[in-house]
Structure formats: C-alpha cells, structure tokens
C-alpha cells in the first residue's frame, strides 16, 4: 500500500499535460469539502473558451498548492494540536455546552486536516489524462464522509489514490469498496500487500498444501483478508485448466506481474485457489507489489504432473495489457 508523502509542493506551470486532470480533481474536492477549495475567478463572459480554462486551471493550481503546503506543514501542526488537546484535558470546563462546542471544534479541525492530507495525496497521484465523465455525486458524498475520519498516514495515502483513480476513471472503485476501505486497518492493508505479491492474473493465488507462510502470507493473514471482504470466504474454490468448454490438448498462460508460465495440457485438472472479491480486485490496483520467484517455482512444481507441463514463457506489459508474441490480451481474459 502507498505511504503518504510528507512534502513536495505540486507545481502547475501551465495548462499542458496534468493541468486538465488537476482541474477536475479540484472541482471534485470543492464539491466534497465546500467552497474553501472551489476554483475561483472563472471567467463567465470571457472572449474565448481558452481564457475560461486558464482561469479555472490557475485557480486549481492555487488550491492544490494550498493542499500540498498544508501537507508539508502537517507534522508541525499535528504536534501543536496534540499539545493543545493535552492542555484542554487538564483544564476542566464546567459548562457542558461549552465542552461540547470545544469537542466539536477539535473534531472538525482533525477531520479537516485528514481531508486536506488526502486531497494533497490525490493531487500527487493523478494520472496524465482523465475521463470527461463526472464523478457520481453519491460516490463523492460517501467518499468524503468516510475519508474525514482517516488519520493513519499510510491509509490516507490509500484514500488519496482511490480519489485520484475515481476522478481519472469514474466507476473504478465501487461504493461497496469504499465501505470496505473505511473499516480496513493498517495491519490488514499490509497483509493485503503481501498477498498481492502472489496473485496470478486476474484474481487468484494458487494454494499450497504446506500453506503460504514461507512466501510471506500466514493463515492468519488469509482469515483476516477473508473477514475484511478482500477474499472470498471459502476454502473450496477451484480454477479449471483449460477453461470450461475448451478442448484438450491445449495451452494456457499463467501471468503474475511480469512473469509468464505456459501450461501444456493433455488432460484437464483443477487447482485450489484463493480468489479476490470485486473489492479486492479494485484495491489491488493501489498496491505496489512484485513477483515472488520462490512462490512461482513452487507453483510450477506443484502443478506439474502427468499430462501437465509448466514452463517459463516470455511476456511483457503494455499498460494494462499482457503482450506475448503478436497477441495482446487483457488480464481478465486469461
């Protein structure tokens, strides 16, 4: 899972490249967090559309700089806020209404800081291009209502990436995934990142008789990820090779990260697997994982049997596509 970045001001020099994506991000933040971040100075009666866009993007730059500056100063402000909280605990206020007002103010300050940190992380994670499709108002409302209570710095980085991904391509993260993410602990996020090192496209990990502990994933991790809703809660899922309806002999491709394995089949067989849920598949996009050579070799040995051969096969990645020979295939089609 991504770590929250502690510094770096987002620079926006002109309207090229990232300017459009950041403008859309600012508009979503403005709608979700209020007028404080609403792009100002939009030219309503400009001479040309270009003038309107320049004004909007310039205002967006100011807003993003504000967010990034807040992020850079965050640790100092957090220390100051904690000291103030400690003093407040020592100074008893007899009036209940006043205490409630103080509590509400302290809560609002903490939530505002969380949102600003997440917005700054989203600005740093924005793609070079975005869809013109607007972000759903219901999705936006749910996102900000949950994000305001995220104070763990690593999890704020995750929420920032989710916001950036949804702005770039609405529909990337379902509202159900937001609900799952709201309850996800840092320990669960770290277990999920280790699990993703073992995933074969598009969504499964081949089970080993001796477990996955030697590859960084314990049985306790599996139970935690199932309970969190990232893995299906069953131990009886099997993956068929070749796909049902396909003829044998056949050849199948297994891909994990940038490593390919080719199955040469003269018989059908099924492998027991752990499988990601929809939320797990969506959240996997956020994970910076890498192939585990020891696990890949263990899978190769485990699946090799009479009538089944498994050998390395060269592939490469082009964006979201897997390329081998002259073929380009989406992971979900494997």
Structure in words:
The longest helix is centred in the N-terminal third of the chain and has 30 residues, at 96-125. The protein is of the alpha+beta class. It folds into two domains: 19-183, no CATH class; 187-333, no CATH class. The strands form three sheets. The protein has a three-stranded antiparallel beta sheet with strand order 1-5-2, with no helix packed on it. Strands 3-4-6 form a three-stranded antiparallel beta sheet, with helices on one face. It is built from eleven helices and nine strands. It starts with 18 loop residues before the first helix and ends in a 5-residue tail after the last strand.
Low-confidence stretches: 4-18, 35-54
Query: Sheet with the most strands?
Result: 3 strands, antiparallel
As laid out across the biggest beta sheet, the strand order is 1-5-2
The shape, in one word, is elongated
SSE ordering: HHHHHHHHEHEEEEHHEEEE
User: In angstroms, what separates the terminal alpha carbons?
Assistant: 25 Å
**Helix-strand category:** alpha+beta
Q: What percent of residues adopt helix (DSSP H or I)? A: 40-55%
Number of strands: 9
Mean pLDDT rating: 80
What would you report as the Rg, rounded to the nearest angstrom?
24 Å
Count of folded domains: 2
Strand content: 5-15%
Number of helices: 11
């Amino acid at each position: 899972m991504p770590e929250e970045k502690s510094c770096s001001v987002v620079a926006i020099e002109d309207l090229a490249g990232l300017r459009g994506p950041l403008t859309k991000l600012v508009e979503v933040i403005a709608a979700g967090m209020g007028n404080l971040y609403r792009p100002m100075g939009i030219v309503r009666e400009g001479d040309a559309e270009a003038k309107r866009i320049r004004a909007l993007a310039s205002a967006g730059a100011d807003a993003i700089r504000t967010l990034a500056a807040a992020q850079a100063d965050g640790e100092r402000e957090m220390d100051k806020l904690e000291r103030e909280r400690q003093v407040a605990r020592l100074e008893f206020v007899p009036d209940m209404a006043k205490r409630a007002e103080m509590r509400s103010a302290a809560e609002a300050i903490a939530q505002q800081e969380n949102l600003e940190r997440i917005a700054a992380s989203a600005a740093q994670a924005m793609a070079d291009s975005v869809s013109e499709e607007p972000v759903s108002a219901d999705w936006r409302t749910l996102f900000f209502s949950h994000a305001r209570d995220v104070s763990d710095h690593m999890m704020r980085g995750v929420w920032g990436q989710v916001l950036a991904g949804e702005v770039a391509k609405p529909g990337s993260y379902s509202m159900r995934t937001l609900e799952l993410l709201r309850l996800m602990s840092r320990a669960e996020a770290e277990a999920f990142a280790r699990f993703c090192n073992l995933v074969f496209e598009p969504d499964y990990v081949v089970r080993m008789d001796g477990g996955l502990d030697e590859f960084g994933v314990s049985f306790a991790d599996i139970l935690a990820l199932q309970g969190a809703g990232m893995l299906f809660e069953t131990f009886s899922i099997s993956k068929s090779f070749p796909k049902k309806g396909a003829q044998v002999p056949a050849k199948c491709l297994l891909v994990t990260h940038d490593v390919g394995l080719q199955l040469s089949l003269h018989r059908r067989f099924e492998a027991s697997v752990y499988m990601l849920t929809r939320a797990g598949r969506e959240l996997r996009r956020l994970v910076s994982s890498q192939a585990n050579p020891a696990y890949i070799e263990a899978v190769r040995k485990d699946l090799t049997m009479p009538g089944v051969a498994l050998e390395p096969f060269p592939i490469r990645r082009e964006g979201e596509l897997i390329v081998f020979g002259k073929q380009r295939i989406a992971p979900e089609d494997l």
